[in-house]
Fold:
Amino acid sequence: MIIQSKRVWVLGQFLAAQIVMEDGKIQSILNYGEKSVDKDYGDRRIVPGFLDVHTHGAYGFDTNDAKEEGLRNWMKHIPEEGVTGILPTTITQSEEVLTAALKNVAKVVEEGYEGAEILGVHFEGPYLDMVYKGAQPEQHIRKPDVEQFKRYQAASNNMIKIITLATEQDKDFALTKHCVKTGVAVSIGHSAATYEEASMAVANGATSMTHIFNGMTPFHHRKPGLVGAAMRFRDVFGEVICDGNHSTPEALNDLFMSKGRDYTVMITDALMVKGLPVGTKVLFGGNEIELYPDGSAHLTDTKSLAGSTLNVNMGLKVLVEKAMIPWDYAINSCTINPARLIGVDDRKGKLVAGYDADVVVLNDDYTVEMTYLKGKQAF
Structure:
C-alpha cells in the first residue's frame, strides 16, 4: 500500500512525501507524487502511531480485572484515537489480584488479538509511598521486595517493562538495581522522595518519573522535591498526563520547555470509565470513582483526582493549542520518546524505512482520519 500527503512527519519536519507499506513495515519514503498511490490524504498530517505507556483501561475494563474479553475489546478499539502500541497498567492490589492481571495479559498476547500492539506491562505499585499514594489502595501497599517482584515478572511472562516505584522505600536500591539488570525501566512515582533522594535513585538506575506533578513531592525554591528533580534532570524521562486537568497548560509548558523535546512522555493514565457516560461510577483499586463532565475521574469520598479519560490525540491538541508546546516536542512525547523509554525505538516511533508501518492520519482538529497498524487499516 502507498499513501501520501503534503505533510508527512519525517526527520523532525513535515515533508510532502509518500509512504510505501508492505509486510507490516515501511518499505520506503518517496517524494510526493513519485508513484501512483492507494490513498492521497491531501495536506492532512501523517504522523507515527501513538504509544501510551501508562494507561489502566477503557470501555468498562481495568487491567486488574484479568478478563480476556475486556483486554481484547480495549486493544481493538483504542486505535480510534491513533494508539498503535500500549502498556496495560496495573494498580496496587493483593498479590493474588496482580498475579491474575499479569497472567491475563500474557495469555492474550500468547493467543493473539486484534488492534493496538501490547508492548508490555506497566507495573504501578504496590511499592509506593503512603502519603503520596493517590488513588492507590493503602491496605495493599508494600515495601519493595525483589523476590515478590520476580514472581510477578514470571506471571507476566517477562512482560513488565516499566515499574513505578517509591525509590526512597527501596532499601539499598535492591529492587531498582534488579529491575535495571533485567531490562525493566524504573520510574519514580507515588513517592515522597526529596530532590537529594531522587538524585541517588537516578544514580542507581532509575530512568523515569511517573505522572510528574501528581503523586510526588512538590517544587519549592528551597526544597525542589521530585518536581524540581524532574525539571533539573533533563536526561531522565518524565511522564505527564496531558489532559489539562491533572496539570494546567501553564504547568505543562514549564515542564516541556525545561526538559526539552527528547525526554517528556505523554501518558493518558486513563481509567476504565474512559468511553463511558459522564456520571458513571465504578470501583478502581477497591475505591469508588466517578467520571466528571471535564473527562477527569475522581474518588467519590474525597473528590480527589484519580485518573483521566484522555485520548492521546486530544492530549496532543492540549499541548499544541493550549500549552503552546512546539510541535516536535509534543509529537515526540507520544511517539519516539516512549519508544525509547521501553526500548522499542528500533522499530516504533518514527516514519522511517524498516520501522513498523504504524501510521496515523490527523485532521486539523486533531481527530483521527485513519490509523494503520503494521500497514493495515485499523480505524
Summary: The chain is about 25% helix and 25% strand.
